[in-house]
Amino acid sequence: MTVANSKTPAGFRQKQLSNHIAEHIRAEILDGTYSPGQHLRLEEVAQELGVSVTPVREAFMGLHVEGFVRHAERRGFVVSALNRRDFEDLYDLLAQVSSRLAERAAAGMTQSDVERLTEVHEKMRDAVARGDYELVEHTNDEFHRIINRAADSSKLTWVLLSVLKYVPKRFYARIEGMSAMLLEQHEGILQAVIDRRPADAYAAMFEHERVSMRSVLDDLDRQGIFSRAVIA
């Protein structure tokens, strides 16, 4: 797990580390590695990750606020049962915010940004053709990151990043039909951006997030993320 260099203040390094740990635990909850009701003890997680207990405790406190875990008296933390309706609400918000960012990006994206977006899209095309799911996920993230940066809207981006904590960060490209769907829908978003059509960029992004997040929700359901019995 990478941390900042020695010139970075210790408190900031620890905060970065706790954020990385939280992201790791979040991903393992969303991919079913940890089940609702499962007890997670700080010392065991720290040993597994090769870090001290302090950043692990900070990570779990953040996850508690987000609703992924709850505190268990003298027993560390317990994985919370996740509610599908909450995720539906969050994914609806994700579609709205992402669409607004795409709209603004289409109106103000530089030629350099457009070229970079096109390059990333072509890399995704190659990754889909080769069945390289890891690269599909990486290029998908980069495609959206370029658009979000070009939108130049710090508050909307902050909201988006908050919601993205509830979206699986890995394995989503392996959902049947997802990779091809991502590529096809990115094509429409890219064309709207190239043509400087903000309204069309909004519509294309909204449909993209609506369809892709529905697939993610259904996959989480199939994995039992929302319906597993809670361990006593």
Automatic annotation (TrEMBL):
Keywords: DNA-binding, Transcription, Transcription regulation. Residues 15-82 form the HTH gntR-type domain. InterPro entries: GntR_C, Tscrpt_reg_HTH_GntR. It comes from the Bacteria. PROSITE patterns: HTH_GNTR. This is GntR family transcriptional regulator. It comes from Brevibacterium permense.
